[in-house]
Structure formats: C-alpha cells, structure tokens
Write a structure and sequence with these properties.
The complex is a heterodimer of chains A (about 130) and B (about 400).
Chain A (H helix, E strand, L loop, with lengths): L7 H8 L12 E7 L4 E10 L2 E10 L2 H14 L4 H6 L2 H8 L9 H19 L10
Antiparallel strand pairs in A: 1-2, 2-3
Chain B lengths: L1 H6 L11 E2 L2 E2 L1 E2 L10 H13 L10 H20 L8 E4 L2 H16 L5 E5 L8 H10 L2 E5 L12 H4 L4 E7 L11 H10 L3 E5 L11 H4 L3 E5 L10 E5 L1 H6 L10 E4 L4 E3 L13 H17 L1 H19 L5 E3 L11 E6 L4 H10 L2 E2 L1 E3 L4 H7 L4 E5 L6 H18 L1
Parallel strand pairs in B: 3-15, 5-6, 5-7, 7-8, 8-9
Antiparallel strand pairs in B: 1-2, 4-10, 9-10, 11-12, 13-14, 14-17, 16-17
Helix pairs in contact in B: 2-10, 3-10, 4-5, 11-14, 12-14
Classes of the chains: A alpha+beta (about 130), B alpha/beta (about 400).
Chain lengths: ~130, ~400
C-alpha cells in the first residue's frame, strides 16, 4: 500500500470528476458516509424505460472514494436497473486498476458502490442482501 | 549529555533496524502507541522463559520471583507518578478499562439521579462513552467545559458548571489531537472546593512529561502502558487509598478475595481487590521496565526533546503552501503532537502516500469525533513524536509531504 494505488485513472477522475452534482426528481437517490474518515457521498440516478439516462454523484472525501464514484457513474450510464442491482465490486475494482488497495482503503473505493446498492434496492423495494458487494 | 542519549536512541528499539518498503522506518504515531525498547521486550521474554508462574500463591521459587517482579513493577510505577503508596496503583488493561472501572464502581455507588458529570469537549472517546452510558443508566446530566478554536479550555465559566449538582469531573490532562496541556491542578483544586470528585485521563501526559499525582491532588488518575514504551494490555488506575478502600470491586473471582465460603466472600485488601483473576503479569513487569528506561533518560529531558522537535517541525512546515496546524496558537502544548490539514488533500490520501515513503502517521478523527466537529473538519492528519524521533524524521516527513502534493496535483 503506497502511492502505487494512485493510478493515472484515479488521479484523472480525482482532478476532473465526471458527473458531479445532484439531479432533482431522480428515481434512484441515496447517500451514505464513512464515519471513520468523514467521507460523504450521494448518488442520483434518472431512469428512462428502466435504463439509466442520467447519473450524478456528489460529496467529499479522499481521492480514492471520489474518483471511484466518478468512474462508477461512467460505468453505469445506459445500464438497466437489473444490471445495477447485479453490478459487482470486482467490476469496479478492475476498472480502478488497483488490486492492491488493502483493507485500510478498500472501504473508500467501495463507498460509491455501497450508495448505488442502497439506492437501487430502495427503488426496487427489496432488502439489501447482507452479502452484497458493499 | 542529553543530546547524546537521544542521538543513538533508535538503536535501543529493534523495530528501527528493519526496513519497511525498502526504506528506513519513520514512526510518527506514538500518540496511538509507542515502539518498545529491547529492555522492555527482554523483560517480558525473561518472565516467560525463566519464571513463568502464577503470582501471589506459589510457594516455589519462580512463583516467588514472578510475584516480586510484579509487585516491584507496581512500586516502580507508583514512584514514577509520585503516588503516596504502591497500594494506590491498580493494574488494568489500559486507560479505557481504568475509566470503566471507576464508572462501574465509585461512580455507580456515589452518583444518583439529577447529579451531573463534568467533561470537556476534547475528550477521547474512552473518557466520554463510559460516562454517556452511566448517565443514561442513572439519569445523570453531562455538562462540558468548552474549548476555544486554539484548543484551550474555556475556564471562566467553571463556576457555572461546578454547581451544586455537579459531583464528578473527568478530564484529559493532555489532548491526544492537539497536544494541549490542560491546567488540571487549578481545575482540580476548584472542583474540590465544590466537593467534586475528579478523574484525570493521563494517557497522553504520563509518557511525555513529569507528573506528580500528590501535587495534582487528583482522586482518580488513569493511563496506558503501551503509550509509554510498555507492552500493550497493561494499564494503570491510580486512586487515593481511602477511595479505593470504600469502593466495591469491579470484577469478581480469584485473587481479589480474602475469604470465601459457599454463599459469601470477603474482599482482599487494595489494590488486589481490583485485580480479579490472573493479571497481565508479563505486561506489568514490562511496564515497570519501561519506567526504568524513561527514568534513565529523564522526563524533563523527554519533554524538552519533544518541544525542540515540535519547534523544528513548525519551522520547516511553514515553507509548505496551505499547511495548517491545529492549535498552533496554543502556548500550552506538550510538543508531542502536530495535527494538521494540508491544502484540500484528504488525510487518508496523505497517510497512504506517506506510507509509500515508509512514514507512519495517523489519519482520521483520532477517537475524538466531537473535537473534530469543533475544529470544523471531518478528520486531520497527525504526526506525534517520542523519545526515538529526531529532526531527520521531520525532514523525511517534509519531503513526504512535498511528494503528496506532486502526486495529487
């Protein structure tokens, strides 16, 4: 665990976050925080015919949590609600290109995914599975 | 003479002979826990290798030796803080357990509905949560001494807080986040004028400066061994003997009794009344040895050494852009702790990048979330110093912080 985790893709999204902001009237909307480090993240998703037509994240936190959220929003555009509920942490981590995040920082990287799952399951009226990827 | 002691001191600590990530290890997290010198490690190994046995009951030689080592450690620690008697020293697991012991014994026996407990806004969770729980259980009020932005307590409202319902005051001697030294002698004396019993969380003071419990006149006084070169899992409760004698035990079982029949039991004398079961014998022996080591250097010298490092660090870090030290205006600091923010870099990113340079610092809320709220930040980065740190560690931190900027911008 060192500066090696700060891959170019992470630094790029940290310096220039994509899809940052809020969407009013979003069908899926959730937020969560990581009390240990004070990271705070919200995600709004607009659906059209059950497909993601717009998605934004907002919040503050470390480079890992913020860039992961930015990258996740790009990955989710155009996906169906079913695909959102089945999206795995491995897909996100692979895109981040940081297999060596380690236990101290993995929570930062997965905060955005956790918020996505909370929002998606709320929208579906289903209970968040305890073994889900959050 | 003194500078010589600190010059080669890293050699006494085996952890510094290891390289981590291929670089010399720079440890700047001593406010969390300290590294251990060979003397302490050897004393623990000696016990397990040569006289491992239970204490206070064996008739055979090694049990007698182990008992002597354990009780000598108690005396040693008592002298270190100038306790009136070694029998005022109760071994616990850590400062947290010592606070919980007082909450569950003296406080539970003596506080009643409507009474208030006074704390400060800078407490570590360990000196906050046990009182929250007790307050809920007994319907007590919690009142707080507020702090100024520079980290000093606001003391001009003490008379309001020390009203007739105030029965207990529990406060930290030194802030684990800001390094502020609170004027606890004056506060305790004022509390006593109002008949208020006092507890001092000395986890961040005893390791770093000379401390005299008789002079402070504290009623209860708690600290942890692992923050002062000792092993983890051993801590201390110091209390005035009359208080200990009138308190109910905390845990019940072996060694804390004098006489047991099938239906009842009488308690052992203090302090053993509070040490139920086989204690952390090796830990106590190791802590006694840590005290020897600290005495050899001298607590005045340690305090001075840390202040020199602090001043050196402040001077160096003033060259960094957007670098803010919390509580910098505060004149009453141990010098052992620097909590800072650096540009808009998140503490976790700072700590991760420094880790790549083999520099260990703390990032987070430091178990003091209410204080973080007061400072207006979710978290800070903290570098804390101890006997084994020197200016080269601060130079490496400086270089590491420059690297943080180059990676993140």
């Amino acid at each position: 665990m060192s500066e090696d985790i700060y891959k170019e893709i992470i630094l790029d999204h940290y310096r220039n976050p994509r899809n940052k902001g809020r969407i009013s009237g979003a069908e899926i909307s959730a937020q969560d925080n990581n009390p240990v480090c004070g990271d705070r993240l919200s995600m709004d998703i607009k659906l059209e015919d059950n497909v993601v037509s717009d998605i934004k994240f907002d919040g503050e936190g470390c480079a890992i949590s913020q860039s992961s959220a930015s990258i996740l929003t790009e990955m989710l555009m155009g996906k169906t609600v079913d695909e959102l509920s089945k999206f795995t942490k491995d897909e996100l981590l692979e895109e981040l290109g940081t297999p060596s995040l380690g236990p101290a920082r993995i929570k930062c990287a997965l905060l955005s995914l956790k918020v996505l799952k909370i929002g998606t399951y709320q929208y579906l009226g289903a209970e968040l599975p305890s073994d889900s990827d959050n | 003479m003194r500078s010589n002691i600190f010059q080669d001191i890293k050699n006494d600590f085996p952890i510094f002979s290891n390289q981590i990530n291929g670089k010399d290890f720079v440890y700047l997290d001593s406010a969390a826990t300290t590294q251990k010198p060979n003397d302490v490690i050897d004393s623990v190994v000696h016990y397990y290798k040569n006289c491992n046995s239970n204490i206070h009951r064996g008739i055979y030689s090694i049990s007698i030796e182990a008992t002597e080592l354990y009780e000598n450690a108690r005396s040693n620690i008592g002298k270190f803080i100038n306790a009136k008697s070694p029998h005022e020293i109760v071994f616990t697991r850590n400062a947290t357990e010592s606070v919980n012991l007082v909450a569950n014994t003296w406080a539970s026996q003596n506080l009643k509905e409507g009474d208030s407990i006074i704390l400060t806004e800078m407490e570590h969770h360990s000196n906050l949560v046990p009182w929250q729980i007790l307050a809920k259980k007994l319907n007590l009020k919690l009142n707080f001494i507020e702090i100024q932005p520079d980290g000093e307590l606001i003391l001009d409202k003490l008379d309001n807080l020390f009203q007739e319902n105030a029965k207990f005051l529990s406060l930290t001697h030194v802030s684990n986040v800001l390094g502020t030294i609170n004027p606890i002698k004056n506060i305790i004396s004022k509390a006593h004028e109002h008949g208020i019993t006092t507890l001092v969380d000395a986890a961040q003071s005893v390791p770093h400066m000379p401390v005299n419990v008789q002079d402070l006149d504290s009623d209860f006084f708690v600290f942890s061994g692992h923050k002062m070169l000792g092993p983890s899992g051993i801590g201390v409760l110091h209390a005035k003997k009359t208080l200990l004698e009138n308190m109910e035990p905390f845990l019940y079982g072996g060694d804390m009794i004098s006489n047991v029949s099938l239906r009842e039991a009488q308690w052992n004398d203090v302090p053993w009344k509070f040490e139920a079961g086989t204690p952390n014998i090796a830990g106590a022996i190791g802590l006694g040895k840590a005290v020897d080591y600290l005495n050899h250097i001298g607590m005045d010298a340690i305090h001075k050494h840390e202040q020199e490092l602090y001043n050196y660090a402040i001077d160096r870090f003033s060259e960094l852009k957007d670098f803010k030290i919390f509580g910098l205006e505060n004149k009453h600091s141990t010098g052992g702790v620097i909590s800072f923010s650096y540009s808009d870099f998140h503490p976790h990113d700072i700590a991760t990048i420094l880790d790549g340079e083999s520099i260990a610092v703390r990032a987070g809320h430091h178990c003091a979330q209410p204080l973080m709220e007061k400072l207006g930040v979710p978290a800070t980065t903290r570098a804390s110093f101890y006997v084994y740190n020197d200016t080269s560690d601060i130079d490496k931190l400086f270089n590491g912080l420059q690297k943080v900027r180059s990676v993140l911008t």
